[in-house]
Amino acid sequence: MNIHEYQAKEVLKGYGVKIQEGIVAETPEAALEAAKQLNAETGTSWYVIKAQIHAGGRGKGKIQQTDSNGVVLAKKLDEVPEKAKNILGGTLVTHQTGPEGKNVSKVLVAQDVYYPGDSEPKEYYLSILLDRAKGCNVIMASTEGGMDIEEVAEKTPEKIIKEWIDPKVGLQGFQARKVAFALGLSGNALKEMVKFISALYKAYDATDSSQFEINPVLKTSDDQILAVDAKVNLDDNALYRHRDLAELRDLSEEDPLEVEAGKSDLNYVKLDGNVGCMVNGAGLAMATMDMIKLSGGEPANFLDVGGGANATTVEAGFRIILKDPNVKAILINVFGGIVRCDRIASGVVEAYKSIGDIRVPIIVRLQGTNAEEGAKIIDESGLKVSSAITLKEAAEKVQEVLKNA
Ligand code: GDP
Ligand code: MN
């Protein structure tokens, strides 16, 4: 689960990570109040106004309606409401949002930490994530902060420092120092960076996160080290033991169909293709998606209904797939192991009748226990559903319906 920058910064601050201070606002008036409060608390007289969406690249991104960037500087208090207004309610398009962009309903009004006249602010990149192959956490750091890290990795991979941390042992002092040294720091800045990295790792570990990305981490000319941006990705599987963090979820940032699927305990991921699919088991779902591609279609989704699929799950899955306007055909591919094929077939027929107006052709491939009985139920239902027993047969039927679509 992703959270917003303003939420992530609060979480980090709670673990002693130094951050660029800010206050979230939903209206231009509230943005002005936020700026006044920041002025009183931090003494800042310049402010940064930052669109809050679950995507990066906001600084270079544009609000479609006003042409404002997603991150802007206000050098006077009375510029704040106007600049906030140009972001709030707009659609922000960045290289991470796709062309449709994301609606902005909140801005973070933050203190300007690149002090006016500071001739040597320096931006670093720092992230912590799980290295699944090594079974370790890894800290990645770079002197090329503020840049797209994928680009750094591609063009100058030697500029990315990696330090692996055994989760059983935790981060050792020498490891934090090693990273700070490798970033070329010395003196007070080195000490501050070591503190920053240690606090960041503590936060990562304690929140059961799967990824932290702080880009940029800023070093000011007076050797403070601060998080200017914060992307925090929490591990969904651990949220049950972090009720407070689970509450930070912003459903409006997530795909509505994925949210609905989650409520029915379905494992659904929306994709861009034209053939919807419903499968029991993740491995079979992947194979089915490959098969759709081989037969000339593009999968519209990944949907694993789980091993114990029944009429209710099938109906919920159907409803979700049908809400995707790109879907031209649906392929149901179920292996009857725990569940019997005739039960799935009856479930499909029941769901079909209960939903009613289904306009796309449906191909059902049932294999395993009672496969033939299942096919018979489908074929005799009188509905616009065709059955297949082998994968090849199913692929051919998909090809055929796409040709006629
Ligand atoms: P992102 O574009 O979504 O990654 O958003 P960031 O939070 O990283 O902000 C984008 C850029 O805005 C940063 O790389 C900085 O260059 C700039 N920025 C952020 N905070 C400040 C600030 O306090 N002062 C100034 N002058 N620039 C800032
Ligand atoms: Mn950033």
From TrEMBL:
One of its GO terms (biological process) is succinyl-CoA metabolic process. Mg(2+) binds at residues 215, 229. This is Succinate--CoA ligase [ADP-forming] subunit beta. Residues 2-217 form the ATP-grasp fold succinyl-CoA synthetase-type domain. Heterotetramer of two alpha and two beta subunits. Keywords: ATP-binding, Ligase, Magnesium, Metal-binding, Nucleotide-binding, Tricarboxylic acid cycle. Substrate binds at residues 280, 337-339. ATP binds at residues 50, 57-59, 113, 123. It catalyses: succinate + ATP + CoA = succinyl-CoA + ADP + phosphate; GTP + succinate + CoA = succinyl-CoA + GDP + phosphate. The keyword Metal-binding applies. The gene is sucC. It comes from the Bacteria.
